[in-house]
Write a structure and sequence with these properties.
By secondary structure, the chain is an alpha/beta fold. Helices cover 47% and strands 12% of the residues. The chain contains eight helices and six strands. Strand 2, helix 3 and strand 3 form a beta-alpha-beta unit.
Length: 187
């Protein structure tokens, strides 16, 4: 059983008509968050943001999927497309993952501004928080960085931090809900 009071969480940060910007990769975590948002009184406020990095062959299918879902469940969708591999070949001083992250957040903050919203919802969960902690620990990061992910950091909200990845996957599978699996995450 998943213990998540998303309605309460949203009321803490949003007014009735505020736009809710959701960073959505179509993976299990962000799709779980989207499906949960669609059950709330804020469902008419949702703007799903999908960034097509053109790194994976399935990204075209993911884009079609999220557009199709937006028609089915009546939410807005914003899509941005950027050839990250091509960009990275020009400026190879940073990793492809870091460049993708930078470009994705540029897109998300642009959408935030476009809709005069205050926050971007991400689907970071407990496993991400633990992974980030150990990643920072191995880099001998500052103590404040070790504390890492919180529910709210600047304009980022993370309502799923109390949930484990296995809980998310179990819920999606038990409820027959569609999502994509990013094979590059296994690298």
């Amino acid at each position: 059983i998943i213990m998540l009071d998303l309605e309460k969480f949203l009321h803490k940060y949003y007014k009735k008509d505020d736009k809710i910007i959701l960073a959505c990769s179509t993976g299990p975590d962000s799709m779980f968050l989207l499906y949960q948002l669609l059950k709330t009184n804020f469902k008419k406020n949702i703007i799903v943001c999908y960034f097509n990095h053109h790194i994976r062959t399935q990204s075209k299918d993911e884009e079609k999927f999220i557009k199709s879902l937006s028609k089915k469940f009546d939410f807005q969708v914003e899509i941005w497309s950027e050839n990250i591999k091509k960009l990275q070949s020009i400026s190879s001083s940073i990793s492809i993952e870091e460049l993708a992250r930078i470009k994705r957040y540029e897109f998300l903050f642009g959408i935030l501004k476009k809709y005069s919203s205050n926050y971007i919802l991400t689907a970071h969960h407990l496993d991400d928080k633990i992974e980030t902690f150990f990643f920072n620990l191995t880099r001998w990061s500052k103590l404040t960085w070790l504390i890492n992910m919180t529910e709210k950091s600047w304009n980022i909200l993370r309502p799923l931090l109390s949930l484990e990845k296995t809980q998310i996957i179990d819920y999606l599978q038990k409820n027959n809900l569609e999502y994509f699996v990013d094979k590059t995450n296994e690298d």
